[in-house]
Amino acid sequence: MVLSQPLIWFFVGVAFLILEMLLPGFILIFxxxxxxxxxxxxxxxxxxxxxxxxxxxxxxxxxxxxxxxYSIKTFKxxxxxxxxxAYADSKIGKTAIVTKTITPSIPGExxxxxxxxxxxxxxxxxxGESVVIEKKSSEDGxxxxxxxx
Length: 149
Fold this sequence. Notes:
Blueprint: H1 5-22, H2 28-44, H3 49-76, H4 80-89, E1 95-100, E2 108-112, E3 115-120, E4 130-136, E5 143-148
């Protein structure tokens, strides 16, 4: 039993699809599409194996570079980073309790609304004192600048 060339390209695409599921990186899916496009084109056209491979590579790479960034945004959705930012922003202006002493040179810790956060201040603030959260103090959004009430 000899498989037809379109069927071979279909199975190559299935192999790339399985690999994409096992090694998620959203790259191999474009090689899946490239192999299926070559397989479909072989139903209409007849060209050499070398031309098939070149077509496969060109189509796959064009799809990869043209669609990957857009596709990741579409399929990934909102990330936890965006959710964390909104959660951290809700703490600004709230009163917190210092749980680890804060000094100007060493961050401490505060408890606000049931969660613990790193905190920095311009002056030393001892454990147990109440502070107000002024703003986020780090790019990662996990450290707040606080001041005494």
